[in-house]
Amino acid sequence: MNLLDLIFPKALYCISCGRPLPPQGVAGIALCGRCAGEIVWVRGRRCAKCGRPLADENPAPLCRDCASRAEHIFGRATACALYAGRAAELIRDMKYRGKPYYAETLAAFMAARHLADADPGTGELPYYDFVAAAPMSAKKKAMRGFDQAALLARGFARRAGIPYAADALVRTHETDVMSSLSGDNRRQNLRGAFALGCDMIKTAAGKRFLLADDVYTTGSTADACAETLFDAGAAGVDVIVFATGADVRHAEDRPAVVESPSQLRAKGPT
Ligand SMILES: [Zn+2]
Ligand SMILES: [Zn+2]
Known about the structure:
By secondary structure, this protein is α/β, with parallel strands linked by helices. It has ten helices and six strands; from the N terminus they run αααβααβααβαββαβα. The protein folds into two domains: about 1-35, no CATH class; about 40-265, Rossmann fold, CATH 3.40.50.2020. It has helices spanning about 5, 35, 65, 85-95, 100-115, 140-145, 150-160, 185-190, 220-230, 260-265, and strands spanning about 75-80, 130-135, 170, 195, 210-215, 235-245. The longest helix has 15 residues, at about 100-115. The structure holds zinc ion (2 copies).
């Protein structure tokens, strides 16, 4: 047994389908090959800003969503998978079916994605002082019992070897449920929603942050967090997520990426 196995013990069963996992599986990833094979990984041409895979017929460096809006405040985003099929199911199960332990596996995929972005020549990775997460509203956290972005950020930071700044950001007021809002309304809704946590007030200046989250939808949450960090003098704010939406012609055409529990109930078990 090596040190990695002690830090990240190998799981025995797939978290998604329950099948036994092979003994030679990857430490920390509790997903069988069959379930992982149903995930559409982000490969090939990506949006230079938000990291979503570019549609074949879109020759531009930006996805249609980034091209159609005022420039994002955050630097750039990286995503592991397309929010569809098994990847979407994993996120829905984690958030709405009370499975916080899924975060470990998703964070392991995010760390692998981050490490794969090392410069092929030098092996160097983009430098970050801290991993942080957008804080969930207290009301939502009380209902769900856990904050999946914080769990993902913590798990990702440990694997990527970057310090995790818990409570780097705090919510200053409760916001409406985001999944029912369009892009412009999301931004309006989030204005002034975040502030720096006590420990970060004297620390943020000159630092580079990587925000970790489960899903990238419009980037409004990332922009609001980035704005708060830049106001405090941060030197850079990038984003890493497990899943992102597809590159579609109009924002309205995009299927709702974040489903609410009521939508999920209406759909029934998957
Ligand atoms: Zn499986
Ligand atoms: Zn984009």
